[in-house]
Queue: 4 jobs
Job 1
Amino acid sequence: DAKTTQPPSMDCAEGRAANLPCNHSTISGNEYVYWYRQIHSQGPQYIIHGLKNNETNEMASLIITEDRKSSTLILPHATLRDTAVYYCIVRLDDKIIFGKGTRLHILP
Amino acid sequence: DAGVIQSPRHEVTEMGQEVTLRCKPISGHDYLFWYRQTMMRGLELLIYFNNNVPIDDSGMPEDRFSAKMPNASFSTLKIQPSEPRDSAVYFCASSFGGAGTEAFFGQGTRLTVV
C-alpha cells in the first residue's frame, strides 16, 4: 500500500509556482521520497527524489520537513505542459508503489 | 539511449487468446518492473526483476499471468487465457540500482480484450 497522502486535485495559474504537498507521517529513517508525474496517456516520468535534504534539479525543487513527515514539490514557473497527475512515493526497498496522486491543472 | 521500449503499443485480442507483451529495458539497467494501470485501480506493481531474477511477484493477479526475463535486454509479460477484465495499459520500467535511484518508464502497451 502507498504510504502517502496527497490532495486529489489542485489548480495553479500559468507562470506561478505550483506547490504540491504530500504527507508521509509513517516514513522511516532510510526511506526516500520520490516524485513522479504522468501526463495523459504517457508513462510516468521521474521528477526528483530526496532522503533528508532539500533537492533541486532542472525540473523542480523538493522540500522535506525536518521531521520528514511531509514534503512539498515545487514547480517554479508552471506552464500548461505541466498539467499532469503528480505522484508522491515513499520508497524503502526496490519497489515503487504508486498511490492516487494529485491531478494538477494549470490554468491559462 | 532510446529509453525503455515496449511492444506492441496497442493490442486488441479476443477473450481466451494468449497475449504477450514485450519490454526492452535501458542498456545496463539491472532492475525491471512491470505495472498495470486501470481507471479503477490506478498503477499497480505486478512483478519486478533484479539481474534477470524475479524478486517479488506478489502483485501478479492470478496464474493466468506470467513474466520472464531470459536476458538483461528483454522481458515478457504473458496472459493466457486473456479475459476482458485484463484490459488495461501495461507499463514496463527499468533502473540501475534499487532504492535511491530513478526508474524510467516505457510508453506502455494498451491492451483491449474483447
Job 2
Amino acid sequence: DTVLTQSPALAVSPGERVSISCRASEGVNSYMHWYQQKPGQQPKLLIYKASNLASGVPARFSGSGSGTDFTLTIYPVEADDTATYFCQQSWNDPPLTFGSGTKLEIK
Amino acid sequence: EVQLQESGPGLVKPSQSLSLTCSVTGYSITSNYWGWIRKFPGNKMECMGYISYSGSTSYNPSLKSRISITRDTSKNQFCLQLNSVTSEDTATYYCARYGGNYFYFDYWGQGVMVTVSS
C-alpha cells in the first residue's frame, strides 16, 4: 500500500501562511487530493489532482506537487480554518490510501 | 444537490456482521462510483471499497474476505456488509461519491459511529 506521511500538528496565527505537507512512499503522479475535516463533521474536499480547487472552496486554499511530495497551502489563514487536513492518493489502487492527518490550530 | 445518508446499527457484537446502508438523493447511483470509508479512533482513515455505476465492485485487499458492497438501484441505495467483526472494526463509517476520473471523494455522508462490543 502507498503510505502517505503528514506532520501531526501545526499552529499558526490568523493572517499567516501555512503549508501542510504530504509525502508518499512511492510516486502517485498528480493523483493527490486534500480534505478538511472539522470535529463532528464529514470530510470536505478542498483540492483534487494536486492543484485543482474544488467547487465552492475559497481561493485561500491551494495545492501543489507531483510524484511523492505535495503541499496544501492556506493564505491568509482564518480562525475558521481550525481543522484536521488529510491527503489521499488514487494513483496506486487498490487500495486508495489516506494520510494520517495534520491538525491545524489557529492561535 | 447530492446528499448521502448512512444508516444502520451503532452497536455490533464480535463475530457478527456489520450492515450499513447509504441512501443517496439528488443523483443516481447508476452514474459514478460509490464507496465506503472508515475512520478509526486516532484519525486513521481506510478506503474499504466501491461499487461502480454498472454494479462492479472493488475491495481493499485487507478486507477482501470479509466485505461485500451491493446496491438497490430502485431505492438509490448501496450497502456495506462486513463479516466476522472484531473490536478493531470499531470506527466511524462514511459513504461517499467518487468524483470525476481521478477517484477523489466529492460528496460524503455525515458518518455513522459503529462500536463492536459484547
Job 3
Amino acid sequence: NAGVTQTPKFQVLKTGQSMTLQCAQDMNHEYMSWYRQDPGMGLRLIHYSVGAGITDQGEVPNGYNVSRSTTEDFPLRLLSAAPSQTSVYFCASSYSGQGASYYGYTFGSGTRLTVV
Amino acid sequence: RKEVEQDPGPFNVPEGATVAFNCTYSNSASQSFFWYRQDCRKEPKLLMSVYSSGNEDGRFTAQLNRASQYISLLIRDSKLSDSATYLCVVKGRDNYGQNFVFGPGTRLSVLP
C-alpha cells in the first residue's frame, strides 16, 4: 500500500517557468489537498478537492491551479513560478465526512521547490 | 490573531522528563482536534486524535477544553526518539466540513 505518492521530491525552477507537481493516492480517499510549508508559518492550504471533478481554493491559492479528473490523482500546477513560491509542498488525503474526524490526514513525503 | 497558536518553543528536555505542549484555537465552531508529529525534513504524521473526554496512548496524553478553546499534549518519560516538531491541528467547518488548520508547531529536543 503506497499511501500518498508525490513527485518530484526536489525541483529547481527559473522565475517564469511552469511545472506540475504530481500527487497520487491509492487509498480511495475522497478528500485531497495541497499545502505549502514555510519556516515559522506552519502549513497553509493552497487548494483542496472533495472528489473527482470538485475543487476549491484554500488560504493561499494565487499562482496555482489544480484539477481532479480521477479519485487517485490531484496535480498542482504552478503557472509562472516566482521566488515567493519557494517552499515545501505537501499533498494530503483523508476520508471525507465522519471518517476525517477520526483519522485526519495522510501526507505525501513532500516536494522541495526552489525558484531562482 | 492566528487561528491556531502553540507554544513557540523550542523545548530542550533531558531523557525521562515530562513535557507539555499547549495549543489554543480561535474558532469556537471547531469540531475535531489532532496532534501531529513532524520530523526534520519529513512529512507530518498523525500522532493522536484528541477527544472531548481526553485520551491516552502509552506515554502520550491529550486533553481538550472546549470552554477555554485549549488543547494539550503531555509526553511522559521522554525518549530521544520523541525529538520532533509537534503540530496542533484543528478541523473547522467549511461547505464540505473539511478544513484542517495547522498550528506553527513546537519543536522538542530530548537530550541524552
Job 4
Amino acid sequence: DAMVIQNPRYQVTQFGKPVTLSCSQTLNHNVMYWYQQKSSQAPKLLFHYYDKDFNNEADTPDNFQSRRPNTSFCFLDIRSPGLGDAAMYLCATSRDRSGSGLDTQYFGPGTRLTVL
Amino acid sequence: AQSVTQLGSHVSVSEGALVLLRCNYSSSVPPYLFWYVQYPNQGLQLLLKYTSAATLVKGINGFEAEFKKSETSFHLTKPSAHMSDAAEYFCAVSARSGYSTLTFGKGTMLLVSP
C-alpha cells in the first residue's frame, strides 16, 4: 500500500543534542510537509518542500532545518533541541500545493520526541 | 487569510447517539474544507473533503459534513456514535486558488460512553 512512513515512532534526545527525524513516502507526491504538534494543540506547519523548492514558515525557529535529498525522503533536523521542542512531529505529503484541488494531505503516524 | 473555529474542545456522547462537531470558517471566498481524525499517538487521517461538487459530503466511517455558505459552516455529523469513534477531530481550510497552506482548527475531542 502507498503510504507515508516515519521513523522512529519514538525518539528520546538530550537537551542540546542534535536529532534527525525521517519521513519517506511511496505516493510519489510532489509536496512534503513537516508539522509540529504539541499536546492538545493543532498541528503547526514548520515548512514544506514543493519538489526541491523549500518553503519556510515565517515563525519557524532557525533551530529547525529540513532536507529533501530525493522525492521519496524528507528529514527534519533539530540542531539544539530544547525542552520546548518536545512534541509530536508529523510528516505529510500531497500531490500538489493547497488551492490546486490536488492538495489532500496524507499524514504519517508521527514521531514523538522527548527531550531530557 | 482563511481560518477555522471549532466550537467545543470536548464533546461527549453516548454510544448510538448523534455526533455533531461544529466548524465555522472565515474566508473571503468559499475555501476548500477538510475534516481529519486523529487517534491517540497516530497521525491524521482524512475523513472527508469539500471542494464544491456537492454541499453534502460523505466520508469514511459513516461521517458526513454539510457546507453551508450562508452560515460559513462545515459541521461534521454521524447518526450513531460508536465507541471506536472516540478520537480528536480537526477541521481544516485551504484557499481555493493560488497558493496557501492548510490551516487547522484547534480540534475537538470526541468522547463516547457506553
